[in-house]
Specification:
four-stranded mixed β-sheet; 300 residues; alpha+beta
Length: 300
């Protein structure tokens, strides 16, 4: 009886698991004034916030959590007001079916990170209003991580979470904080959201699904079939480039996937290597050196 109760409790605990397994780093090497204890507190506060907030109604098992990493590099700190400024590197990964391999989904640097934080400050989650800029930034990236992860498993599976990210952007745009304004630049948080939700560039979400579910997941079973699906996916990158060559989603795909693509095509035939090189060169002409690696014949 006791064993049954313990098993039932374990099952409930697993079903109640939050969505993210988030590792956090805070780099304050550039800060020379005052005690650095506040940065250790900030790291722990962000870690707790990301990993204990229940972001969705979806049921996640403990072993199903999305691994992600936030690396905050601070460039300035006013110890009298708690004002901090820097950039935030966001990374997330997704497992490939029936293998020990994990693949990058996001690898992006948010360069417009400004917020207030003081020792002892608690980070409070609110779905209906903007508590402060720090939690707004964390909320936005949490939902983008979840949305893009869901898109890799089910076509348009991230819909509800892009909408939540959009709600955060709408609230933050009225705050006057940097990084949220539409058309402020091509790489801020508003631009990232638009890249995955606007009609012109939303085919990037089809790419997320095809690349991961029809490509990488299938390569474990049939390498050639999975790689062929990825090749077809890359054709769609060119279509996005034709209508929105400056879209941040193209840069995000490159930063997450280019090194992996070199490995994917390492054992492809010469014709396929050349074809993929040409498709990627049209979209990423400044990456010639890295793209040349695709055409090389492996030495082993």
């Amino acid at each position: 009886m006791l064993l049954a109760l313990m098993s039932a409790f374990a099952a409930v605990a697993q079903d109640d698991a939050t969505e993210l397994n988030c590792e956090v780093e805070v780099n304050s090497d550039k800060i020379t004034n005052g005690s650095k204890d506040v940065f250790n507190e900030l790291k722990q506060a962000i870690t707790d916030y990301m990993n204990t907030t229940k972001w969705t109604n979806a049921i996640f098992g403990t072993n199903e959590k999305i691994y992600c990493k936030l690396m905050l590099t601070l460039s300035s700190w006013d110890n009298s007001t708690g004002a901090m400024e820097g950039d935030l590197q966001i990374q997330s990964q997704r497992p490939v079916y029936n293998s020990s391999y994990t693949t990058a989904v996001i690898n992006f640097r948010d360069t417009k990170v400004k917020f207030l934080y003081e020792t002892g400050q608690q980070l409070v989650f609110s779905e209906m209003e903007m508590e402060d800029n720090l939690t707004a930034i964390l909320n936005f990236w949490a939902y983008m991580i979840i949305a893009m992860d869901f898109d890799t498993f089910e076509l348009n599976g991230g819909d509800p979470y892009y909408e939540r990210a959009a709600q955060i952007v709408r609230l933050a745009q009225s705050s006057g904080e940097s990084g949220w304004k539409a058309f402020e630049d091509n790489n801020n948080r508003s631009a990232v959201l638009s890249a995955y939700t606007d009609k012109q560039t939303s085919p990037i979400r089809q790419i997320l699904y095809d690349y991961h579910r029809m490509g990488l997941d299938q390569m474990v079973v049939t390498v050639d079939k999975g790689r062929s699906a990825i090749t077809h996916t890359l054709e769609n990158l060119g279509k996005i480039y034709e209508v929105a060559p400056m879209s941040v989603c193209l840069a995000m795909f490159k930063d997450a996937k280019l090194d992996e693509l070199i490995n994917v095509y390492s054992k492809a035939n010469t014709s396929e290597k050349e074809s993929v090189y040409e498709m990627l060169y049209q979209v990423y002409p400044s990456e010639t050196t890295r793209l040349e690696e695709i055409k090389k014949t492996p030495t082993n």
